[in-house]
Every structure is written in C-alpha cells, then in structure tokens.
Design brief:
Length: 258
Amino acid sequence: MPPGDVHGSGTVLGHGSLAIYPVTGLAEIVPGDDLAGLLMDAVTHVATGDHLAPVRLTDGDVLVVTQKVVSKAEDRLVHIDPGDPGAKQRLVEEESVRIVRRRGDLLITETKHGFICANAGVDLSNVEEGTAALLPIDPDRSARRIREALEHRHGVSVGVIISDTFGRTWRRGVTDVAIGIAGIAGVVDLRGTPDATGRVLEATEVCIADELASAAELVMGKDRGIPAAVIRGVDPRWLRFASVAAEIIRPPDEDLFR
C-alpha cells in the first residue's frame, strides 16, 4: 500500500491532507473488556462515506478514543444516588485537589491529573442512571496500553489519543482535547523556525494532540454513539514518545492566573 493510500483504492492523500474516519459498530463497553481488541475489530468496519469499507489500521495512523469508553473498560464507574442532589458535588470534590471557581451546581476544579475543568470530569451522560464515570487514573498510561496492545498483538504502530470534552476559559462552547497520548506529539515546538515570510517564530508552540482530538470529534459527535476515529495523513515527525502530563499540562510556575 503506497504512503497515504486510504484503503488500497488508489486514493492518495495530498501533502498536508488529513482523512478522518469514524469507527462504528463498537459494542457497549463494560468493565474488563479488551478495549484494544474490540477497537481493532471495529476499525475494519469504518465508515468511508455512504458505506462501510475495510480501513485497516496502518503504521502512522492516529487512533482517537473517547475517555468514556476507556473509563468503562477500566471500571472507573461509581454508584451515585440520583435522588441525592448533593451526591455529584461530593463526588466532584473527592476527585479534585482544588476548587477553582464555584457557581451554583457548577464547579471548576483542578483534578489529580492537573486538568482544570468542569466538575473534575465526572460525567453522568451515556452511562446507566445511578452511575457516574470518572476520568481514567492515568490517561497517558491508558493510551500506552492501547498502543502497545495494537503493536504487539496486531503488528501495527499507531499514535493513540484519549480525548475528552472540555470548556475553555473566556470562550463559549466546548471542544475535545487530549487527556492522554501515546506515540503522538503533545506539543510541536516551532520556535526558531521560519514562518511563511521567512521571519523566525519566537513563541509558537502548537498543541497538536488537542487539535487532532478536536478534529476527530467532528466525525464522532456527541449524540451518535461513536467513541473512536482514525486519523490518517499526520506528519510522520509528530509520531514520537510523548505524554499529556509532560508536555501539555502547564506547570504552576508558568501559569499567570494562579
């Protein structure tokens, strides 16, 4: 298969182009499931337009997986009393190391991972009533496990991004970001390189992992039950060892707002 060939059809991606495919047909994930194996099975039925066609994972692809299915597979599910209005708030506080802001039922908190987000990532959507999904204990490790399983068992080397939906300070709306990565850069440092006019960039660092997570969400959606996507055509230079904890989380001494 030539570089950039989508699925052996002769369609080749141009320079700088990306193709993003939703992974459909994944069964409901339950604790203890072999998530990597189920994803590998499902990815052969990726939607490529108006039909299903085999799009085998190939070296250099990036697999984006939503936090929710990772949390389910890792049994990060807890019981919550739907009749207790304070139950969620107590759970959020347990999952937080710091309350950043509080407004009514909404808490902006810092999680144990260092994420600043609403309600410590505790989520009641797309789970059974009376159940809350918590963030993976170590999302970078979750991404590494999926990547290593795909490489060792299926012989394919891909980047893996665990994505979640976050709001952004001072901006309305939500977008997907990377909370765990393996085999794909978190941040690409362009400082010292020339821009299109030849001027040297002095401060530009691009969060590639967040951009890819957000792009993948466009084909997954919030209400379609599609928990994964394959991105093809990423710059091979981005495929390297990386982690969200090491590259993306801003250390407190660099934060102007604490």
